[in-house]
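cron nightly-structures :: item 1 of 1
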Amino acid sequence: MNIIDKVKGLVEKECKSRSHFTEFFTCHILPVVKFSEILAKKIGADEEIVIISAFLHDIAIIRGEGRKNHAHLGSEDADLILRGLDYPKEKIKLICKCIMAHSSGDNSLLEAKCLYWADMMAEITELPYLFAISFVRSNNNYEEAMEKVKEKVTENWSALPDIVKELISPEYQAITKFLKMKI
């Protein structure tokens, strides 16, 4: 089994062991991985680093360590996980940098850019999951949830560069029509 399959299996197992995180794996982690891989190919980033970073980017949330510092905590978790799999230290450092940067936008590495953008792309395209989060986690009513989703989609879309926007433009157009937003 290769390193990507090992990390995928570990994250999937962690998600399945916690209530409501099976959906998180399917509706967030896997789309982030998919978009990360597409972006890595498009901009010439190291695909293995990007894919592993995508699988591990929210490991602290999955483990219940909180959302506030999840990038920092997730970076520490990823370091321990990957060292336990005897992954090369220099590659672990790159993955940890990607995970640290995925929430902050500090993207000096191509690989970190891929993860940062892919995370936003998944938050735009996985609309049903975004609504579910808004209802369940934030305990919003319908109107509040609709407004939060509109804000998140708009915020993420405006942060993406044109090279990335073109990859999900049809989905964005459909979503904005659904949300009755101005484009």
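cron nightly-structures :: done
The chain has a mean pLDDT of 90.
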